[in-house]
Amino acid sequence: MVLPEGMSPVSSPPARDATLDIAKALAIILIVVGHVWRALEPAGLVQDPLLTQVDGVIYMAHLSVFAFAAGLFVAGGMRRDGPWHYARARTVTFLWLYTLWSTLQLLMKIAVGSVVNDPVSPVELLRIWEPKEQFWFFGWLTLMMLLAAAARPWISRRAAAVTLGAAAVGSLAVWGLNWNVLGGEGLALTVFFFAGVVLTGRRLLGWMQGLRVVPVLLVLVVGGAVWVVLGATLLGTPPTAYGSLRTVSSVALGVVGSSAGVVAVLAVSWLLARRSAGMRWLAWIGERSLVVFVAHVFFTASTRIALSAVGVDSLGVHVVVPTLAGVVGPLVLYVVALRLRQDWVFEAPRWLRRLTRADRSPAPRP
């Protein structure tokens, strides 16, 4: 696969324990829950204040975890392959997945018509520059790869400080705001991505080796409480939502809440990773988080429609069952695609990589 190592659906980087894979698994499950939860409002199954409270908690941190994880192994990959080759290879796959899966998702909605919560017009297929639902993340990732290749924050401490400072200023300026153009959504996540690039996965995992259970539990409790309180009350603005409500103080508290969420997820992931035998299944999901990300809406939406068709109106059932379908369904599809040797479903096909020179072997680098 030619994805950032922090998001690969196939395998983990060498010398990495299960902590980061579990963190990605928890984040992707929260993403699925978030989309399931938001779909319940048009269906009349949940209303404010519960709707906004849960939504605020989820959106305060889940994408920040993904952004941080996506950056952790970029520096190593760019040193190994060369910055622009690495960026080009990832960009080709990101834009392929964006085009393929956003088209498929739109076709599904067009086919079922008014059965879905937000019917779309066929003309949406032509507006490829307007990101469709969750697929804006690929435009953001493409932009991050290009910025990382240009900035190269790993070459010196000064470069790292300047890059991280610029990312922080830029993220604060657009915190909670989005623009409906490819690459224009999620820009507040930039600081988390570059925090991962500067920190690096190897350094983070090495530091985690020396941790002890009691301090990690304390960090989990404090970080989790800050995350939940600031998210549920919306005293803090989430990085990618509720921008119309943002103020200077809500942005500052949003940074605190989102950062606390990332730390809390890493803490619980570290604790779960210590139970390595029992948590292997969760790490396996995390390794294939991108598979779940691109395909989960097909399974969550169809499950919700089926539940409604048979008269189920229990809020709990409408949360749990579509979430399970949204996680398990894409993984089954992934296994089937591998068995049938149809890997183009989840990565750029070979002909496209050859055409763009995205799969050529880079020259050895010192």
TrEMBL record:
- Localisation per UniProt entry: Cell membrane
Q: Name one GO molecular function term.
A: acyltransferase activity
InterPro entries reported for this sequence: Acyl_transf_3_dom
Membrane topology per the record? Multi-pass membrane protein
- What this protein is called in its record is Acyltransferase
Source organism of the structure = Nesterenkonia aethiopica
The UniProt similarity line reads: Belongs to the acyltransferase 3 family.
Keywords recorded for this protein, A-Z: Acyltransferase, Cell membrane, Membrane, Transferase, Transmembrane, Transmembrane helix
Domain Acyltransferase, residue spans: 19-333
